[in-house]
Amino acid sequence: MTERTGRCLCGAVSFTLSSEPLATRVCWCRDCQHLAANGTVNLLVAADGLSIRGALAEYSKTADSGNQATRQFCPACGTHLFAKSAARPEFRIVRAGNLDEPSSIRPTLNIWASSAPEWACLDPQLERVEQQPVPPQPRPAGSQA
Any idea what DSSP says for residue 94? Predict the structure, then answer.
């Protein structure tokens, strides 16, 4: 595993991923569409494999899944960086566009595809999940992907 790093637009918040993503997916839920005016590419990571430097602001609401979701962003520039669910505290969502090398990952599925607008360009080579997929099992500490 090569460490991945990233940051917000202004650089006030930076992060390091020390483990491989558990999943990389394009999310078409309405919340992600509001964030990006499109689907968003997200990494699902083990919370203990993400280290964050800098202060974060938060916004919480009930997500389409029914779970309490907290989105975390840079209070200076507003860049949306992370999300977490009260139902699954062992995971974090990292927005792939904030990686220093976003091409180091590749999405494998579209989630919440039932919420995608008619004009959405869903890659037909990616697995399609109509709503929230079953979460993967976290990898044991120190394991490789």
Answer: E
